[in-house]
Specification:
- The complex is a heterodimer of chains A (113) and B (113).
- Chain A has 113 residues and is mostly beta strands.
- Chain A is built from no helices and eleven strands.
- In chain A, the strands form two sheets. In chain A, strands 2, 4, 5, 6, 9, 10 and 11 form a seven-stranded mixed sheet that branches. A four-stranded antiparallel sheet of chain A has the order 1-3-8-7, with no helix packed on it.
- The termini of chain A are far apart.
- Chain B is mainly β and 113 residues long.
- The chains are: A mainly beta (113), B mainly beta (113).
- Chains A and B meet through strand 5 of A and strand 5 and strand 9 of B.
Amino acid sequence: DAGVIQSPRHEVTEMGQEVTLRCKPISGHDYLFWYRQTMMRGLELLIYFNNNVPIDDSGMPEDRFSAKMPNASFSTLKIQPSEPRDSAVYFCASSLQGPNEQFFGPGTRLTVL
Amino acid sequence: KNQVEQSPQSLIILEGKNCTLQCNYTVSPFSNLRWYKQDTGRGPVSLTIMTFSENTKSNGRYTATLDADTKQSSLHITASQLSDSASYICVVSAGAGFQKLVFGTGTRLLVSP
């Protein structure tokens, strides 16, 4: 298995632009997570899905952030409009069931100028 | 407030030496504690997971300990190698749900030749 796949790996955009991050979880995993990582705050859970359904989005910082999972093999995290403080590394992770081992993707490094 | 504190923030050791990383938590109720290794530019990878009843667990040259009474955990690395250079993140689960994961900000370890 190729593991969790994220794209793009790097994204540089200007403030106010829309940003879409993409994730393909490990086949067969029924949980998908979106995290944000910064030097100051470390890893933060933004939202997670179970069987394509959003379960908890309490970590999503603002209405500018939205996430979807239209099917079991694809999820997006969208920021519209983006702001410089959104600059971070965004990780997607997936797991089989329960609060067990999560497998992380390589991350998307987002820079908002 | 649920918190996980790690020390030191950063550490430099010579190749072949041992080191110990610390994790103190104030998380309740406690479910489990996991140590992750995160290489630069990559997602975290799980090293060990311990539940309340376990006080030590090994994974090769990595040994994690847990003292649930003092709410402390340590990760001991034996005979360090250059490839051990990474960030090590302590994550404590405050309950059964993913939203109750509490992340430390990590210890950055550099193993010098």
